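Sample pair:
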Amino acid sequence: MKVAINNQHGGFGISDLAFERLLDLKGVLWQRGKRCDLLGCMYYQAGHLGDDKYYISPYNYHIRTDPDLIKIIEDLGEASWGRYSEIVILEIPDDIEWYIEEYDGLEHVAEVHRTWYGK
């Protein structure tokens, strides 16, 4: 299974170009908001520009194993990375339970196991 993670401090994020391609692949009718800044643009469902009720959050689409997201990252390379990201695709065996561990935005994939803590 392929998993997308951030390989530097800062946090996982995709570029506006990558997000727009992802929305298109998902069949979401969207329009770009009037405000774009260093952190990116705002997106809304088509016909609802500026209405917060119809805001489309990129974080709802950061499913790290999503085949569409993986394909976009592989196709665009660095152009798919968000402002503070350096995204890599890891290949994880299908038969294990795993999770993404993070410190200051730098991520790695860890296998689920049992843990006990004492005082």
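The beta strands are 2-6, 30-37, 40-45, 55-56, 87-91, 98-103, 106-111.
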